[in-house]
Design a protein that fits this description.
- This protein is α/β, with parallel strands linked by helices.
- The strands form 8 sheets. Strands 19, 20, 21, 22, 23, 24, 25 and 26 form an 8-stranded parallel beta sheet that branches.
- Strand 11 and strand 12 form a beta hairpin.
- Helix 3 crosses helix 11 and helix 18 runs parallel beside helix 19.
- The chain is globular, with a radius of gyration of 27 Å.
Length: about 625
């Protein structure tokens, strides 16, 4: 009997082991190619061997997460394996700086991807070198796909062959890319006007005015719709329909720029690609999807307290809450000048701070103890000398607030990276920032890195090259100009369901009383209509941190899909904005939630619970 059993085992076991091995191989291959098979996904295409955890990749993944877009990385080889049937429901991005080299096989697959209904975004130098280190002549091998001849032009632009200058946009482009009021300034450029078919505006930055961007020169007629133009009339961005899909060409290094504190265009084009061109929902970065403003006051001297009474007369203290930050020491510009707030001994200042605390305003730190001295001296190399002023200031503010500070604003806008790391180590969750101007709250990369990974920056909203009321006064801006900017900012956040930050020192408030009265009258109306909320940096950061824990995806085939979301604790107040699809309203199928018609889109808001699903119809721009 044992001999027969032995013969049986020798005969059968090898086959069993073979089937087990084949099953394991199948499982491994399926997992490896899960990304290659998925539909309704946004892919960041990476070259073989690229570390997906590298900062240059994380910049894209973090930006997508902040825009409420599920994105995954995929290698060239896995992208080639994707089935043709899933092209129509997907978007793919060939990023700048990460994927210069490209093979003819991948070029051909990208052409097929777009023609079959995929939405492709080609960014700057992505795919400009064919196969190895040999440049593809003066033209990118993707020129035919993009719809315009582009590449370095050393005859016109010198050794680098790259054009540098302002980026121009029209009013229509501002609306399409959701650029906020003040992020552009009127600037004529006849070549750009000819390409864009309208009056041109340049994209601006705080204290810089029109920002200068690198653009690969283009030549010949563009067969798409231009969105941005260079000063020579080159295509800086545009969209070309191709077969059943299309190609979004962004001809400036938006990934690199995000790493250098200019993330506006990266975020704008990610949203445009997925929401407008692919027609998929995005997860809003505001509670209930309702937009609003952060009003950040920088209180740095004893001249500030009389201005609080003026603010009250404008109706400010009937609204809020606001983020109010203090430099607490007795001096302001130099030691011994006694122009500081002196929060530990100034009874009038302490009275106001207590009132703000009791109102529910968020009290925070404005630099370290002595405003001008700290702001003018702090740098990358003097942490040992300057950290004591941060500690002194935080101790004074937290003592009167009755709790540790959770917010910060840098005096003179000067914030070395070690300061940000110190803030995060001391449990602060938010800080005002003069980079990434005009953006919603974001994780701010600096020099291509994200050293402080759990704290949110709040970029300021600008008006051309200015942001604070005292700056408007120095440039003699009219009351109407400031009023229109403020009320337009409130409208922008209400219309887009996003958050923006305005700031000033109190001594600037009294210079534009009618503008402030108009702002608070307007926000009162918007709030009454359920379209606007004031919030604080720390409250917004707390929501964003909870939002980051949500996991969700699009499921299904065709255009009628299901969005499935989970959260480890609670999905309440998380909201998705869904492109409008005629009368086909989304329908909640799992969990508690509601669907709202907000005119330009549907808004689906989750109630309490850890699981939530709704059906929707995918609808892209016509």
């Amino acid at each position: 009997m044992f001999a027969a059993l032995k013969r049986f085992l020798f005969a059968v076991v090898p086959w069993v082991l073979l089937f087990v091995a084949l099953g394991a191989l199948y499982s491994w291959w399926g997992q490896r190619n899960d990304a290659a098979m998925a539909e309704h996904t946004v892919y960041l295409i990476l070259p073989e061997g690229q570390d997906p955890a590298a900062p240059a990749v994380s910049i894209w993944l973090d930006a997508a997460k902040e825009e409420g877009i599920p994105m995954r990385t995929i290698s060239d080889s896995d992208f080639l394996l994707r089935p043709e049937t899933s092209d129509r429901g997907s978007a793919a991005i060939l990023p700048d700086n990460l994927h210069r080299q490209i093979t003819p096989v991948v070029v051909n697959r990208l052409e097929q991807f777009a023609a079959r209904g995929g939405q492709l975004m080609v960014v700057y130098d992505g795919g400009t070198v064919i196969s190895s280190d040999v440049p593809a002549g003066a033209a990118s091998p993707l020129s035919g796909l993009v719809g315009v001849h582009y590449g370095p032009d050393r005859e016109r632009f010198g050794a680098g062959g790259v054009e540098r200058g302002p980026l121009f946009v029209t009013d229509a482009g501002v609306r399409r890319l959701l650029l906020p009021p003040g992020k552009t300034m009127e600037m004529p450029s006849p070549p750009a006007e000819e390409l864009l078919h309208g009056k041109t505006y340049a994209i601006t930055g705080y204290q810089y005015g029109a920002l200068l961007y690198p653009i690969l020169p283009t030549s010949g007629a563009y067969t798409g719709e231009a969105l941005l133009a260079s000063d020579s009339g080159g295509v800086a961005a545009g969209y070309r329909r191709l077969g059943e899909g299309g190609v979004l060409f962004v001809n400036t290094p938006i990934g690199y720029l995000k790493g250098q504190t200019d993330g506006t265009l990266l975020h704008a084009f990610l949203h445009h690609l997925v929401f407008d061109r692919l027609g998929l929902p995005v997860l809003k970065a505001t509670a209930d999807g309702i937009g609003g403003l952060v009003f950040n006051w920088h209180v740095d001297s004893n001249a500030s307290t009389p201005e609080f009474e003026r603010l009250e007369s404008f109706g400010a203290l009937d609204q809020g809450p606001f983020s109010i930050h203090f430099t607490a020491g007795p001096d302001m510009a130099a030691f011994g000048d006694k122009q500081g707030l002196d929060l530990e001994h100034n009874a009038q200042a302490r009275k106001w701070v207590a009132r703000f605390r009791d109102r529910g305003d968020a009290l925070g730190d404005h630099g370290g103890w002595i405003h001008n001295y700290f702001g003018g001296r702090v740098n990358d190399t003097n942490k040992d000398e300057m950290v004591k002023y941060l500690e002194m200031n935080e101790k004074a503010v937290s003592a009167i607030a009755g709790r540790p500070s959770r917010e910060y604003s840098a005096p003179l806008g000067n914030q070395p990276e070690w300061v940000t790391e110190w803030l995060e180590a001391h449990n602060m969750v938010a800080y005002y920032f003069t980079g990434n101007t005009g953006m919603a709250p974001t994780r701010s990369y600096r020099n291509g890195r994200l050293n402080a990974k759990h704290i949110w920056s709040f970029p300021v909203l600008i008006l051309g090259n200015m942001a604070a009321f005292e700056e408007f006064d120095e440039e003699e801006l009219s009351e109407d100009t400031v009023k229109n900017w403020l009320t337009s900012a409130a409208d922008f956040t209400a219309d887009t369901g996003t958050l923006r930050t305005i700031y000033s020192h109190p001594h600037g408030f009294h210079r534009y009383p009618e503008a402030l009265r108009a702002l608070f009258a307007h926000t009162r109306e918007l709030h009454a209509a359920g379209r606007f909320r004031w919030t604080t940096m720390s409250a917004a950061a707390d929501f964003l941190n909870r939002r980051e824990q949500a996991v969700w995806s699009y499921v299904g085939s065709g255009d009628r899909l299901t969005l499935k979301a989970t959260h480890p604790t609670d999905l309440v107040d998380l909201a998705w904005e869904v492109p409008k699809a005629g009368g086909q309203q989304p329908r909640v199928t799992v969990g508690d939630g509601r669907v709202e018609d907000i005119g330009r889109a549907w808004r689906v808001v989750a109630g309490h619970g850890r699981n939530f699903e709704f059906e929707f119809t995918r609808k892209a721009l016509p």
